[in-house]
Amino acid sequence: MGHAVMRHGETHDGETMRRLQGPGGGGEPTGWRSVATATGPGARDAAEAGVRLAYRRAGLAEPERVVWVASPLAAIRLLRKEAGRLGASVRHALRDKPLAAQRELLHDRLGPTGWSTHWRATGADLWETTAPLVERIRSAVVAASARGPKDEPAIRVLLLDAVLGQHEAAWLSALDPGPGSGLDGLAVVANSAGWWWPYEKVVVLSERPTELWRDEAGRLDRSDGPALAYPDGFALHAWRGLPVPGEFLDRLDTLTPALIRDEENAELRRVMLEHYGYDRYLTESGAEPIHRDQTGVLWRIALPGDEDVVMVEVVNSTPEPDGTNRTYWLRVPPSTRTAREGVAWTFGLEADAYAPQRQT
After folding, report:
1. For the segment 59-106, what is each residue's pLDDT rounded down to a tens digit?
2. In angstroms, rounded to a whole number, what is the distance separating the alpha carbons of residues 131 and 186?
């Protein structure tokens, strides 16, 4: 059984999604969402102009060099190689300080309740989907570049030096990145590039991803390749937000009930079950029904080292256009004892309280 995926620029059923226009300032969460999920080559001239503007707004001398790399991983490798020739990090001066000032200005103007309402209307939803992605990228960079556990802290420090480019969109949507804010340079870079590292002498700019695949909830999600990929091959694989090895996805089209049962990692086994289909797995595993009543049939099958798979099989009483009645499978908690209890649980009810006037 497959699943729907959404690539940036497409809906989950493959129809082309209208490309959103770029943002014109703070308070436009739809436009900034487009920025946060943009893929493809950056606008290098614009990004470099934005970098130099950000330095001037912070009262800093412009950097001597601007260097482009293909991914955040490539940036970390370059920064480690160039250590001692970069100068000190200036992230605080050109990003943290003006952002904090703008937030304080709005907070004072709107008050605590007004700021909270404003944040929910602008950056909150975008932050909910962007923040986990940022952490996934950081973790993957550490895993790919650390020479051992003792090496990880130094890499994490370098990652904290980064301005997140397009992934600053949640904050920029809530604040007004106009000329007087000190944030206009950051906004230009966000519209034009990925993560970047500002130092006294050198700026390292990363390209945006070439691919971004997410499900309807905004989680990284793809079954036939990387869910996030950069032009140098740095990539993340995921199934409905769960990190998975790339080679694991290659096995999904060859699954059998035996292969699923033999998987020792419980999280990966759940991915396999979702892809294969719980109903198909039950049918082909020789599962036996453990209860029947007028609401449906309750099925259970044990999984080694994991909770039982328990599902209720129900039949839609309303015929389809061709006259058939569609069968649905509903996964319910392992503690479920009767079909009625399981169906009631899907409605948030106790079994005794579930008394439908008409099944649909």
Report:
1. 999 999 999 999 999 999 999 999 889 999 999 999 999 999 999 999
2. 18
Q: Helix (H, G, I), strand (E, B), or coil: what is residue 296?
A: strand
DSSP 8-state code for residue 225? S
For 5-35, what is each residue's pLDDT tens digit?
Answer: 344 433 322 222 222 223 433 444 459 999 9
Quote the Cα angle for 25-189-172, to 5°. Answer: 35
d(CA 178, CA 28): 13
Cβ pair 304, 285 in contact under 8 A = no
Angle 16-18-20 from CA coordinates, rounded to 5°: 140
Helix (H, G, I), strand (E, B) or coil at 25: coil
Residue 268 CA: distances (Å) to CA of 203, 238, 248: 40, 11, 8
Element (H, E) at 164: none
Q: Which amino acid is at 7?
A: R
pTM over cut 0.85: no
Q: Which residues contact 180 (CB under 8 A, 6 or more apart)?
A: none
Q: Name the token pair of 302.
A: 């044990």
Q: Are 70 and 206 a contacting pair, CB within 8 Å?
A: yes
